[in-house]
Amino acid sequence: MKSARRSVLPRPSRAMLAWFRLYLRWYVPRHFRAVRLAHAARFEQAAEEENGALVVALNHPSWWDPLTCMIVAHALLPEHDHYGPMDAVEAERYSVLRRMGLFPVEQHSPRGAAQFLHASQQIFSRPRSVLWMTPQGAFTDVRPRPLMFRAGLSVLAARLPRVTVLPLAVEYTFWNERLPEVLVNCGAPEIFPATDESRAVESVNARLAGALTAASDELMQMSAARDAAGFETILEGGRGMGSVYSLWQSLAHGRGRNRQP
To answer: What was the pLDDT predicted at 247?
Structure first.
């Protein structure tokens, strides 16, 4: 009976998530200038009920990724339940995270694959539920190409009767302020209808890797432009470049110099 109970995936605690979001609204702005989101309409399109199960597949550049996902998830789909796999060893250390939608999966083992598929089946049997995952499976810089995916996402997409995968590109970069930016870009959703007969794991993997590559390349161009107008700011942090540098800028500006050093 004990193992059977453990196999049931708990729903995220709304109270715990509300408390943690309050913490994030204090913590994240201490480290970032802003969290900025591009092409939110693509996410809304992917979440339409007729598109079936929704999986958000993002790149994995940083330790900050789970926190970024929580912020984006609440900004776009606050009434949905959001889930994500987590290394079983880390889940044992931070059991509180299981109350916020993260579930344990053993790494690099058949048992872990079975855990992931079993949890995913439970998630998609529940209305208004979203699965978030990082198919690269490890921290990876945003620049290397081609993107290399582990098999989990492709196996899942090939097995589900109807699924939509939204590629989500994330980048942490400095613009003109003291603190870095969190930039997020929603890519074009990949919809796999129930009648799709070309859903071999290899072809699904290539298709999804291409979709995330396109979203990441698009975000790189937007990041290089350093123009916040292309994004919606969903969480704003501190302004300014530090007291000494700001003073230098003010003095230079007063003397008619260019504000950029």
So the answer is: 55
